Structures are given as C-alpha cells and as structure tokens.
C-alpha cells in the first residue's frame, strides 16, 4: 500500500497514503480507460463501493496507461467525468505502483485487509460473487456488521454490459506492427512509412486489412490521406476500436457486410453507420441484436491523421 505514494498525481482525492487507509478494507483496482475488459467490470466495482463504503470499504483506482494518449491527465480526467467515477484515482504514468504490486494485467483487483496486507487478487473479468464474498470476509474480520450478505445485482448498459461470451470467437488484436496478427492486405505490411494498401476480395475469420495510404507504426496505424479504410472479419456480438484523431473532429462511416449496420450499430454509430471521432478513446461500433455469425466490418475515415490502435470484441 505504500506504493500509492508513488502516484504522479491524483483525481477525485488528495494523495492517499497507507496510513490514511489503515483500518479500512481497500480494493486496489488497476485500470486504463480504453480497456473494454475493465469497462465491463466497472459496474460491479462501483456497486461494491456504494454498498460497503459505510462499513469500511475503500475503492482506489490506479490508472496505469497502455497507449500513449492515456498518459495525458486531461484525457484521463475526461474519461473519469464521462464514466461518472467518483472514487479516488491514482495516476500511475511511471508504472511505479504497477511495478510495486508486480502487476501484469488490466483489469486487476487487489483485496487489502484492514492491516494493509494484500489477501487476495483477481485478474480479468468474472467471479463477481467470489470477489464480493472476499470483501464481506475482510470486512467481517475488521469488525463490520449489519451489511446485506446478498450479492449485488447490476444492470449494465452500453460498453459496460457483459460480453456475449458464447458467441465471442474473435480475440483482441492490436494494429501496430509490434503486436498485430493476421494482417491480410496483399503483399503484406510496409513498416514505418506511408504505403498505398488495398483490401483483399475476401478476409478469413479474424484477419484484417487496410485500404488507402497508411503508415503501419509500432503501436498503431496512421492514416495519411482521407478515405482510408480498415476492414476486419469477425465473429462476436460487439466490435470496439481504440482510435485517436490527428486533430479536430473526424467523420467516419461503418459498414457490415457492405451495408449500413441498421439495428446492429454500436453506441458511437447511428443506424446509417455514421459516427464522429472526437477524442482518443474506445469506440463501440457494432452491437448485433440477432444471430451471430462471421461478418465483415469496415470503417472509412473521411479525414487524414487518424490513429487506430486495437480492436476488441464482446
């Protein structure tokens, strides 16, 4: 817990110390604001904080950035505001808290007892009832009584809703050359410099392609000329994409199997497939409502300068 003193700054709170938290059961929640896996856990974290806060539970977020733009405090503050997060958030831009906990995952939840000892951890999504049982056990150990033992129920919506696990056959994929897989534009990738790409006539499942003038850089792909396209063959209910504008607002258009998404549009797209890239964040572009099968996603950006980082699915 002393590692909290290594935060570069704090949101929603003055700096917290191990001494200030002594006597409370603490959930230390490692997150980064574009991580869809963390976003889907947020309703549970907040429900626990609300239910058990009066009995001695403290939720402390540790924002450790993954992408370059997540180091910017203003971007994190806007995400905190958009998500209505009101618990303390330690900004861990130097990965100092992450390293002190020997953490390797987003999301990661560490359960700290009233004496400041880490007693349990959970990585990733799921096991919500087991996590809540651990909270209850640590609170009881600390002398708390009178709380409701029934687990919380959440009704998450939008990007925070649980994934459609039974139909989720498409894994996360980064677009920068350091970690990407299954790039399918003919003749392969030209790294670190502008190149005119074309998309193949067909894509295999979980393969992707570029069309237009793009740079494939280490951590992202960069659009050099307007009307560049990214296409992806997927099998999932949801398609999410981490994007950043080069400057200003960038209109884009989404197609599924060559047509507007209609009722299968995501929260950041209308039924005609139109959306607006306004700031660096995760964009939910597809949420299917019917039977899930292999489909081809396309997004066309109407201005240059766009950076695309990673696809996630749900």
UniProtKB/TrEMBL annotation:
Annotated Thioredoxin domain residues: 7-140
Pfam families: Thioredoxin_10
PROSITE patterns reported in the protein's UniProt record: THIOREDOXIN_2
Gene3D superfamilies: Galactose-binding domain-like, Glutaredoxin
Stored PANTHER family: PROTEIN DIPZ, THIOL:DISULFIDE INTERCHANGE PROTEIN DSBE
Protein name in the entry: Thioredoxin
Source organism per UniProt: Kribbella jiaozuonensis
């Amino acid at each position: 817990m002393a590692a909290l003193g290594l935060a570069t700054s704090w949101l929603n709170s003055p700096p917290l110390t191990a001494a200030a938290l002594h006597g409370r059961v603490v959930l230390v929640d490692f997150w980064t604001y574009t991580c869809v896996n963390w976003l889907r856990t947020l309703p549970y974290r907040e429900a626990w904080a609300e239910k058990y806060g009066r009995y001695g539970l403290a939720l402390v977020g540790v924002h450790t950035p993954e992408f370059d733009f997540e180091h910017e405090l203003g971007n994190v503050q806007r995400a905190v505001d958009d998500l209505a997060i009101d618990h303390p958030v330690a900004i861990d831009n130097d990965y100092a808290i992450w390293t002190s906990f020997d953490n390797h995952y987003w999301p990661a939840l560490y359960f700290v007892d009233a004496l400041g000892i880490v007693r349990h951890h959970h990585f990733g999504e799921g096991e919500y009832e087991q996590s809540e049982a651990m909270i209850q056990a640590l609170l009881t150990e600390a002398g708390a009584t009178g709380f409701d033992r029934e687990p919380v129920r959440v009704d998450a919506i939008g990007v925070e809703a649980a994934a459609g696990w039974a139909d989720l056959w498409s894994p996360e994929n980064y677009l920068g050359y350091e970690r990407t897989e299954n790039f399918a534009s003919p003749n392969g990738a030209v790294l670190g410099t502008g190149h005119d790409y074309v998309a193949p006539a067909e894509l295999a499942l979980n393969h992707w392609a570029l069309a237009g003038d793009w740079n494939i850089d280490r951590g992202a792909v960069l659009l050099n000329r307007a009307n560049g396209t990214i296409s992806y063959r997927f099998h999932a209910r949801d398609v999410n994409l981490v994007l950043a504008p080069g400057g200003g607002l960038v209109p884009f258009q989404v197609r599924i199997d060559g047509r507007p998404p209609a009722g299968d549009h995501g929260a950041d797209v209308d039924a005609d497939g139109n959306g607006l890239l306004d700031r660096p964040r995760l964009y939910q572009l597809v949420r299917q409502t019917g039977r899930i099968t292999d489909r081809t996603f396309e997004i066309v950006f109407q201005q240059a300068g766009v950076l695309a980082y990673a696809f996630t699915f749900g």
